Sequence to fold (317 residues):
Amino acid sequence: MTSIPSSSDTPQPGIDLFGYGLAFAGAALFSTKGVFIKLAFAQGASVETTLALRMLTALPVYLVILMVLLKRNPQLKSLLTRGRTAGAMGVGALGYYLSSYLDFAGLAFVSAQYERLVLFTYPFFVLLFGVWFFGDRMNWKLVPAMLVSYGGLLVIFAWNLAVQPDGLFIGTMLVLGSALTFAFYQHLAKRQMLVLGTGLFTCIGMSTAAVLAITQSAVVDGIGNYFSITPTLWALGLTLGIFGTVLPSFLLNGGIARIGARATSSTASFGPIVTIVLAVFVLGEPFTWVHAIGTALVLLGSWLFARTDRKSRASGN
Fold:
């Protein structure tokens, strides 16, 4: 059996600016979804309904893109063996259904800013899972950067615990679970894309996640629930589906395919800034000096993590 390259990738000459650009754009758009989800919750939507609305909007887009891909490139059909298709469906369900559901559920308890910062720790899990399960070498120089970021999270967690503790623990655990599953997804997705390509894998994985989310909502909320959804809520679902799902999923997976899971995860530092600005000005969430210190530490830790990781990869360590 031929071995699959590690998701950390072998060092390449130069920097793939286009790959990093895809990753940055994907991270920024994904970071808007917490705000749209909060707005949907304010309209009375449940976690299941909000996730289903997101996927109802996204599913037709992925199916159309899938049909276009297969029509323009008939040879792709030969790649869709039963095992490969099942693998892509399973990985998609992990990254875009389970991880998304945990994230949406966590947002019912914590602020959009805090959710994004907790979710922002997933690059550290990408590193650890790579070492534990995928044969990557542990880089101990990255540990101080991880501690700096978690120190920032602890600052904001302590503030929330003192000011608004209700649901904080369960919300944090749910979002942390989302970060864990998404980190594992990134490693598995890289291996799927090496075989199927970015477009084919994304369409299959996201379509699977969409069907699961819609089915869950139909069981939990009932089919009749959709007839009572307001135009405002449908509009939020449309925005969440296109700008918070379809576009960033292709951008992020394109980044993973070009620069690898670890490098892609390290570019996410722009995401929390987008979320904070939107959360403050759109949702009216507070941003105190405690939030400023905590956010600065999280971002500093991420920057140090990415900088150290790039240097280590460039030197072959």
